[in-house]
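Input.
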Amino acid sequence: MIKIEGSYLEGGGQIVRTAVALSSIMSKSIEIINIRKGRTKPGLKNQHIHAIKALQKLCGAKVEGLVLGGEHLIFQPKKLKSKTLNIDIKTAGSITLLLQSLLIPCLFLDKKITLRIKGGTCTNWSMPVEFLENVLLQYFEPYCDKLKLKQEKRGYYPKGGGKIEIKLKPKFNEHPIEKINQGKLVLIKGISHASKSLENAKVAERQAKKAKELLKKYEVPIKITVEYSDTLSIGSGITLWAIFENEQGDKEVILGSDSLGARGKKSEIVGKEAAEKLIKEIDNGACVDLHSADNLIPLMAFLPGSKIKVGEISKHTLTNIYTVEKFFGKIFEVKNNIITRSQQV
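Output.
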């Protein structure tokens, strides 16, 4: 049984999500201790429990310690099997964080799978669904025959109520991810969104306008869609992504950023935050953005020879490397902001 220290480095729920994902793929039992030990409220949260229960259904795992606030977990998987999953987090718990546990195992199923999930689509400390769809899933597409995400309803904190559906047909191969040359910036896109009750105040338009003001220095087309939705809680946010091409005109790199609105926070500040994050990634020469990088580490573990260049190495990325190497041994090298997965199988 693989033993994992849940308080290591960043010490958050990511260790749990990554560990159970790898456990289910590799059919290796794990024991995690001191889960989220350094947090104000340590232990398992609601979205962790729903992620583990979903994986339990996919791989018939025997689980001990699956309780709210639990700091010790044992997960003993059997073989992964495809099935439709309907998951209701019942709070504004992050849908995208829950998917950190599910997406990579889905690539190793024998047939297509449908995931229907209710929860928070735009929440603090996690990528919004717009980022997942337009940035991160671009890395997963080469390993699928079919990959489609539909956001049926947005869900802001605190009530959530967001709904998404993912349909995925796996076609896994070991083609490595190689993102070390940024290429030429050709386009910046985005989605600026808000609750319908904020439409008269033009919140989404103001977020988009401020972002455009800062990004126009790159002298490329900027296309930011404005959207308003009926939501259970009032909220807003903006997701941006920059698209680069190589000399052959093929899409080489995609970098993302985002920012969320909050009560008392001016719309212009929301747009400014997202734009400044994207500018930092572009100007740092990143080929994979800060938030995509840590999510790619578990996928790269199965793709020998993968190599990505980031603007900076985050604690989340180092934490995921630690977790992955509990299963694979020493397979990653981090040097000059380039993360390399060795050729070792």
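Residues 267-283 form the longest helix (17 residues).
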